[in-house]
Amino acid sequence: MLTYIVRRLIQTVPVIFGVILVVFLIMQMVPGDPAVLIAGDGASEETVQAIRHDLGLDRPLPLQYIQYVLDVFRGDLGTSYRSDHPVMDEIMLRLPTTIQLALASIVITIVLGMIAGIVSATRQHSAADRLIMLVALLGISLPSFWLGMMLISFFSVKYHLLPVTGWGSLEHVILPAITLGASGAAIVARMTRSSMLDVIHQDYIRTARAKGLKNRLIVYKHALKNALIPVITVIGLQFGTLLGGTVLVESVFAINGLGRLIVDAIRMRDLPVVQGGVLVASVIFVFVNLGVDLLYRYFNKRIEMD
């Protein structure tokens, strides 16, 4: 197990290199000059060139990329062009909010998705099954920003039950978490249903029923545990999707998280902040995938850590 974990951690190194390279190249194609944005529209060409030199933007792109990679592996994500603060400080200020939102959303994804999937599988072809699958299809199809605005319109504007924007209390978490977790819950529900249907038609389940075991015991002790492997995969992937989805949701609900920080940085061409934010989100996603692989081993001892 330890050897497998070490090997997986080593494999993350080229992934990090790739993420840095892709984001770096994309930001170079975004229109606008960071030096001009920092200096202002009325600045002279000499001032702009001086800022470019101070930021290292006058050097060839390969040298800029190599220098940034070296700084990253020293733990330095650079300095924000906009605020002149260390990028790591700005990220760590916003990251806890995004993590809280993502965790609340993944709880909704898991709880609602698995309950709906189990009910749908155990009542196959019933009215409940059709209704759950219809709602799941809607959940997958609806854009998160549209769902967020509809929730705001209904629960905040019309009935004044929950706050529109802000962060800091349970009431502030509910609407963004539902908005972010709805599509994930729909996907988990469909996967849970499919996986449960495959398992409950296996011979050992029929044997358990023939022995007279209660249906609830068969479903939750025998069938569910063996049906969880593909569901865990989907949940792990959904966590990465949630981290990316916070960009839109945090903008809709005016939440000062990592996603909104990245959006503001892209608008200002604050390259170090964009690269640092995407890099941190990517590293989190890599470790989530590692955790998912370890959960495979927990739920199925026959799985080898190759």
What's the number of structural domains? 2
User: Can you say what the CATH homologous superfamily of the largest domain is?
Assistant: MetI-like
Overall mean pLDDT stands at 83
Structural class: mainly alpha
Distance between the ends? 10 Å
Percent helix = over 70%
Pfam families: BPD_transp_1, BPD_transp_1_N
Keywords: Cell membrane, Ion transport, Membrane, Nickel, Nickel transport, Transmembrane, Transmembrane helix, Transport
Membrane topology: Multi-pass membrane protein
Subcellular location: Cell membrane
Task: Jot down its keywords.
306 residues; mainly alpha; MetI-like fold; 2 domains; 12 helices; globular; Opp2B; transmembrane helix; cell membrane
Could you characterize what this model shows?
The chain crosses the membrane at residues 12-30, 98-119, 131-157, 169-189, 227-253, 273-296. It is found in: Cell membrane. The complex is composed of two ATP-binding proteins (NikD and NikE), two transmembrane proteins (NikB and NikC) and a solute-binding protein (NikA). The chain has helices at residues 2-29, 34-39, 45-55, 61-72, 87-122, 127-141, 144-158, 170-200, 203-210, 215-252, 258-267, 271-299. The termini are close together. It is mainly α. The chain has two domains: 2-72, no CATH class; 96-256, MetI-like (MetI-like fold, Orthogonal Bundle). The mean pLDDT is 83. α5 crosses α8, α5 runs parallel beside α12 (271-299) and α8 packs across α10.
